[in-house]
Specification:
Chain A is built from three helices and two strands, in the order αααββ. Chain A has 100 residues and is mainly alpha-helical. Chain A has a domain of 39 residues: Histone, subunit A (Orthogonal Bundle). Chain A has a two-stranded antiparallel ribbon with strand order 1-2. In chain A, strand 1 and strand 2 form a beta hairpin. In chain A, helix 1 packs across helix 2. The model of chain A has no long low-confidence stretch (mean pLDDT 89). By secondary structure, chain B is of the alpha/beta class. In chain B, strands 1-3-2-4-6-5-10-11-9-7-8 form an eleven-stranded mixed sheet, sandwiched between helices. In chain B, helix 4 links the parallel strand 2 and strand 3. In chain B, helix 2 runs antiparallel to helix 3, helix 7 packs antiparallel against helix 15 and helix 9 crosses helix 12. Chain B is globular. The chains are: A mainly alpha (100), B alpha/beta (474). Chains A and B meet through helix 1 and helix 2 of A and helix 9, helix 10, helix 11, helix 12 and helix 13 of B.
Chain lengths: 100, 474
Amino acid sequence: MSSPLRREDVAHVAKLARLTLSDAELDQFTEQLGQVLEHALDMSSLDLENVIATAHPFGLINVVRDDVVRPSLDREAVLAEAPDTQDGRFAVPRIMGEAP
Amino acid sequence: MKTAQRIAHEVQSGLSSASAELERSLAAVRERNGELNVFLHVDHDGATGLAKSIDERVSRGEFVGPLAGVPIALKDNLCQVGIPTTCSSRILEGWHPPYNATVVDRLLSAGAVPVGKTNLDEFAMGSSTENSAFGPTRNPLDPSRVPGGSSGGSAAAVAADMTPISLGSDTGGSIRQPAALCGLVGMKPTYGLVSRYGLIAFASSLDQIGPFAKTVTDAALLLEVIAGHDPMDSTSLPEPSPTLLVHVNDGVAGRRVGLVRELVEGADDDVVDAVQRARVTLEAAGATVVEMSIPEFRLGLSAYYLIAPAEASSNLARFDGVRYGNRVDAEDVTAMMEATRTAGFGAEVKRRIMLGTYALSAGYYDAYYGQALKVRTQMIAAFHRAYQQVDLLLGATTPSVAFKFGSKTDNPMAMYLSDVFTIPSNLAGEPAVSVPFATGEEGLPIGVQLLGPGRSEARLFAAARVLEIADGRP
């Protein structure tokens, strides 16, 4: 059976996942991921039409705590491990283009 | 090497000291870490100070705790304040957590002495520790072979007598498989029994922290210390911590055990033979063993390799060069994130992120991720049906003994098949233990796996103990 995955699919997914792939990586990933997806086709032999999906083994229920102020992580300690900070906040390169 | 139980007893009663036990541990690390690449970081000063303070508390007559002075190794995806934590990834190299994982706090309260952080497949994605950005870990029993993975470093630490116990995490077999390959007891507890707070997430609905030890008793002792409700983990079970240690010698008399065809199917002859001998041993100890088939187990691999990457692709989105870890600078924020992730993640992590992103993307969601979630429902129902007939399930942990380096690295699908027997328990959120039983090719250890319903850890340890005794480790 041919791979269900095309090279352009892999390139598109890489963009979504914020990864840059070389041409060689694109070829390799297309083949390797195709093999995994092909293996997954064994699931399509099942009639799962009326089966309910399970995203979590015990079913998640929202857990809330009392709405009281408690100490949180020390801001300086957290920021000390960040790549770049400014005025007590995380700093990033510009997020918008120059004004026209 | 002394057991953890014995070390704790000797330290508490003054027959030994935490400092002496730590020195023995550090000497073993100095001797073999260069060859085996077990520890990525050894907290020499912190552990020395901690051991000294434990010895002072003992001399003042204080009860230190059930792990008094016991050296322990931590998988490097567990956060410990101020200790480099990398997940064996370049993207986190040099990062120091600002908080402790709940398991680390519990270990410290119990008197344990964390020695350092152990190697793993990057972000726990792998079955051989060959995916670490910092080089593979070697199997102490045969350095030409892998220790298994992803918790290969934590397994090797115990197998090489560097520490008597260690912690790993198990998402699809990452404790049980290396335990089998290194000749150790390894357990994946019931989902939610151990808090995941401070465990760097791979696949949140599957991840669970658990123990490695040379003996069933030590594994039970360690799990008892780390288990229990934690308000910091919203998936933490609300019930009180189970009592395990007092039940390890309960045996299996009257237990009904199901030998599952799909949990030995395709395994090497020596592995199948070990499982058959385990069956005979359990029967001799008073259990009734019936053969059964659970066809849903065959679909576990396919479901797992969509669900786990899907969750991983979401969890690992947070590594974008903004809040922690490394950054590759670029002119705008999107380019910076892409450059950071491209440079920071290794090939297997990229593969899984890609696979997960694809499985979740528009047009493919229903066919892949949606279908996998339905298989998960079927898997859970299949376990429930089985437990109406039997109390425990029996099978192999892995299809083969420890394999050679490089033998599966070019073929991800072949590597993924290492997890075929361990995955069902993760999908169902149920506990399973691997216990060394008999040896195979070239005298290498074989792991036999026992699986049980939620919160049946005591029952699993008791059965594992029967096999351990029969295998000559009374």
